[in-house]
């Protein structure tokens, strides 16, 4: 019996790590942060939304809060709502197919985390209109939870939060497993059309004419250092009087 | 005995002579794909790994279902699509960021990009769009047909070619075979292949089996689920669409598989039907 157990453990050790490691990192990348602000209230409201499809209760289709309920939410509650309940359909190909060895790559774009949904126009407008508050809330939430989900990164890119670069770098140095922070930094540089980045080989590799949303470059010390250094320089080009880390 | 591929090329020739366009209650010629064991998927593809599968013979429509065919269904049944009921169809216009669409309460299959962007009066031979997966199922039930399974679609679309594209197609000559988006992004309109949105079905060159538009025009709903669905009810569609560009999803191929909410209606989403052989 003991031998069978040992053989089973040995078999699992040989056969499962590569797959499960890949799966685990993918899961880590796709994990959103759940903001605590008004969370029970938001969850209760979401659970009461009347499904727009009345034929098939196994999938309710799109389900936005009514304008009245939405408008009654505080700023922080609206933030929580956006981070846990995207309210518009995403199109068929708006997904990022899992790839092998994702933990050894730096991707050009963040992965889709909302299943078959995405942020609606009112949610995007909320994030944009309240960008200062959104940055402050994300900073506060990440500092407390020591974790930055893909939805937070997505929101920062959406609102072009270049002011968050020092915070992102500081977070990355403490959470080096989270290579999507490097992606976030590159997306902010891209959004800002930062010349030193746009003319670089990294940019060509990730955002060039031959590439698509699943393009990546190898993760290594050189690419990591270069990305951090460029992002730092970009931030200082936007805010020259800021203290250097 | 003939190998499956050789057999179905032969049967295709026979089929093109033998079967009437109205045989299955809609305006489409059908191609016969014989049963057998086929290779599907791709090496190192995490969602569609290389494997062998066995299938029964089936007929598959040579082209995507048209507005004309869908109109007959609506006229016969009075069916109201989900986009009409819930006013939540997603439409496109050049200038939107990548993967960004607009909700348009006026959009449905007769106005697939919203009333402001025109109707289908002169596009009855274009694929029907702005219909949800559930709408496609309703059509199939009425017409006595069904959606292809994920595997059936791939076997018919690849026509025996193991790579991402069927024989003779490359990334550079694909514009002859598929109505896709050729611009770098979607900020500017792209008319370079003659069409901004959908094209009349069979406007581009077919695959070796005689199937048109498998790599472009509209995504095609299929039946079946994937491990990544985690038990959720998710619709899947394959091929490419007029929206698809090399720099965005690059999904205009026979291996990648998309995911969409079964209630969602997009103007780049349609279907092609199959009929089982008893």
From TrEMBL, chain A:
Q: Which UniProt keywords apply?
A: Signal
Q: Provide the protein name.
A: DUF4919 domain-containing protein
Signal peptide annotation: 1-20
UniProtKB/TrEMBL annotation, chain B:
Organism classification:
Bacteria, Pseudomonadati, Bacteroidota, Chitinophagia, Chitinophagales
Classification via Gene3D superfamilies? paralog of FGE (formylglycine-generating enzyme)
Task: Name its species.
Answer: Niabella yanshanensis
Pfam families in the cross-refs: FGE-sulfatase
**Origin superkingdom:** Bacteria
Record InterPro entries:
CTDL_fold, Sulfatase_Mod_Factor_Kinase, SUMF_dom, SUMF_sf
Q: What is this protein called?
A: SUMF1/EgtB/PvdO family nonheme iron enzyme
Residue ranges constituting the Sulfatase-modifying factor enzyme-like domain according to the UniProt record: 30-275
């Amino acid at each position: 019996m003991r031998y069978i157990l040992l053989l089973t453990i040995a078999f699992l050790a040989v056969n499962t790590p590569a797959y499960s490691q890949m799966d685990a990192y993918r899961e880590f990348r796709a994990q959103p942060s759940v903001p605590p602000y008004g969370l029970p209230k938001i969850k209760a409201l979401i659970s009461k939304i009347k499904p727009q499809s009345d034929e098939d209760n196994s999938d309710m289709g799109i389900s936005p809060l009514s304008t009245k309920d939405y408008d009654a939410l505080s700023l922080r509650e609206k933030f929580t709502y956006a981070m846990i309940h995207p309210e518009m359909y995403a199109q068929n190909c708006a997904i990022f197919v899992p790839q092998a060895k994702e933990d050894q790559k730096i991707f050009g774009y963040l992965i889709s985390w909302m299943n078959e949904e995405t942020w609606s126009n009112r949610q995007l407008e909320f994030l944009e209109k309240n960008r200062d508050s959104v940055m402050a809330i994300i900073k506060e939430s990440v500092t407390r939870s020591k974790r930055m989900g893909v939805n937070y990164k997505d929101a920062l890119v959406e609102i072009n939060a270049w002011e968050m670069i020092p915070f992102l770098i500081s977070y990355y140095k403490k959470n080096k497993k989270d290579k999507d922070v490097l992606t976030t930094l590159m997306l902010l540089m891209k959004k800002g059309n930062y010349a030193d980045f746009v003319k670089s080989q990294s940019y060509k590799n990730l955002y060039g004419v031959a590439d698509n949303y699943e393009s990546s470059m190898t993760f290594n010390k050189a690419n990591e250092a270069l990305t951090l250094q460029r992002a730092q320089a970009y931030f200082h080009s936007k805010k020259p009087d800021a203290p250097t880390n | 005995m003939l190998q499956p591929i050789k057999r179905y090329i032969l049967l295709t020739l026979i089929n093109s002579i033998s079967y009437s366009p109205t045989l299955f209650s809609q305006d489409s010629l059908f191609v016969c794909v014989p049963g057998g064991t086929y290779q599907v998927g791709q090496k190192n593809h995490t969602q569609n790994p290389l494997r062998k599968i066995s299938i029964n013979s089936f007929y598959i429509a040579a082209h995507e279902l048209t507005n004309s065919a869908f109109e007959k269904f609506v006229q016969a049944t009075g069916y109201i699509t989900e986009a009409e009921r819930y006013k939540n169809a997603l439409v496109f216009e050049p200038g939107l960021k990548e993967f960004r669409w607009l909700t348009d309460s006026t959009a449905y299959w007769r106005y697939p990009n919203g009333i402001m962007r025109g109707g289908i009066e002169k596009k009855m031979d274009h694929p029907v769009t702005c219909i949800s997966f559930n709408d496609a199922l309703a059509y199939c039930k009425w017409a006595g047909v069904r959606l292809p399974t994920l595997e059936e679609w791939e076997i018919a679309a690849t026509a025996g070619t193991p790579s991402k594209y069927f024989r003779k197609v490359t990334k550079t000559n694909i514009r002859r075979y598929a109505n896709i988006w050729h611009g770098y992004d979607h900020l500017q309109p792209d008319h370079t292949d003659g069409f901004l949105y959908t094209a009349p079905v069979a406007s581009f060159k077919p695959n070796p089996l005689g199937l048109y538009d498998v790599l472009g025009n509209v995504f095609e709903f299929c039946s079946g689920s994937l491990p990544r669905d985690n038990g959720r009810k998710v619709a899947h569609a394959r091929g490419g669409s007029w929206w698809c560009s090399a720099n965005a999803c690059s999904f205009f191929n026979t291996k990648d598989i998309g995911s969409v909410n079964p209630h969602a209606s997009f103007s780049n989403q349609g279907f092609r039907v199959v009929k089982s052989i008893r």
